[in-house]
Amino acid sequence: MAPKRKIVDTHTNDVAKAKRTKFTLDNVRLPECTTEGVVLVTGAGDVGQLGLGPDVLEKARPALVNLSSEIVDIYAGGMHTVCLTKDGKVLTFGCNDEGALGRVTDGKEDAEFTAGEVELPGKVIQISAGDSHTAALLDDGRVFAWGTFRDSHGNMGMSLKGNERLPYEILKNHHVVKIASGADHIVFLTNHGEVLTCGCAEQGQLGRTSVRGSSRNARNGIGKGNIVKLVNPAPISVKPSLKLHFDNIWAGSYCSFAKVVDKDDVYVFGLNNYNQIGLSNTEPEYFPKKSPEFSKYNWDHISSGQHHTIALSSDGKVYAIGRKEYGRLGLGKDCQDAQILTEVKVLSDKKIINIACGSSTSFAVTGDGQLHAWGMGTNGQLGMGDEDDYFEPTQVKGKQINDRKVVRASSGGQHTVILCASDNNNKPEQKNGK
């Protein structure tokens, strides 16, 4: 007689071996892209970054860019401009020497000085740009980028092939929910609360390489070997024992910020020579470290230039930290470098809804649609009509901006782009009342 078979409770066994459910983000705050409007530009336009045609090389006050599409978001790169249309398409104009426009301009007259569409395989919901690169997040979680990264040795390329002059899927097998660009690096936030980075690591902005490993010529990965590690996106180095997940990211020119889920804790990494990432030690921070300063408040947005950071709290207050030169902090002509986050008092009686930093400039948009600017004005990028430096927030005025409600601003190296809500939906202004 055959022995009885032992009955195994397979259900109980399966439960015991089941993998822990992976954390998933429920909500991610992206730039609001429901207001359709017009694009204004100011500053230097010598390589087409103003989009006003080959005959307009500079503007001291905001000027209207005549576009045929309704625009919902804007981003200023180092020497190029990116616009997102209502239909989720990307328009670019400006310098294309290293592929930052993502489209072919060679042999096409004035193609860099006027807006042209980038061919992408889906609807774009967020854009970002750096000195020589552009990135686009699609509604299905894919990210495409184009252009190049640069470091102290020159051109790094964007992939092992070098510059990517057309959109290239930079991060596969991840569902990305937000992107952020520094001057030469990109930060990615996934739907599982992970943060990945790629690009230049020399100032610590990738948050995953040691000082020795931050250069493409590092001894632990000479030449091409280390380029692979830098240009391929990889997770930041956070201690697994901390079990951290993140729900927001921001990038400065040479630094990065990541906010912990359901907390005000902000981890920072990158250049800190003027305390611009809120750490007391002014050495670069190569691995994520909790910033006591940036963990004090709940932030709507953080924007960081070359040596300073401007942050907008959830209650509409603006704080500044970092280097004082040229008035970029907005704390007055006689202020000192700010080693801790300091409220910009001139704006304290206003409800601020948006902020932006250029290399040495700062901007704030009020709830009623006014734009305030301060910092270096050498190239007219403040839009004040002159080239003076402004040491406190000052309202930007001019023919094209006075009767329009500003939604947001973005500033690059020497130019600024402004999105305004408007009834004319970017159509050229009609003359003689017609």
Automatic annotation (TrEMBL):
Residues 39-418 form the RCC1-like domain. One of its GO terms (molecular function) is guanyl-nucleotide exchange factor activity. Gene3D superfamilies: Regulator of chromosome condensation 1/beta-lactamase-inhibitor protein II. SUPFAM superfamilies: RCC1/BLIP-II (SSF50985). Keywords: Guanine-nucleotide releasing factor, Repeat. InterPro entries: Ran_GTPase-activating, RCC1-like_dom, RCC1/BLIP-II, Reg_chr_condens. RCC repeats lie at residues 37-87, 88-140, 141-192, 264-315, 316-368, 369-422. GO terms for cellular component: cytoplasm. It comes from the Eukaryota. PANTHER family: REGULATOR OF CHROMOSOME CONDENSATION. This is RCC1-like domain-containing protein. The lineage of its organism: Eukaryota, Metazoa, Ecdysozoa, Arthropoda, Hexapoda.
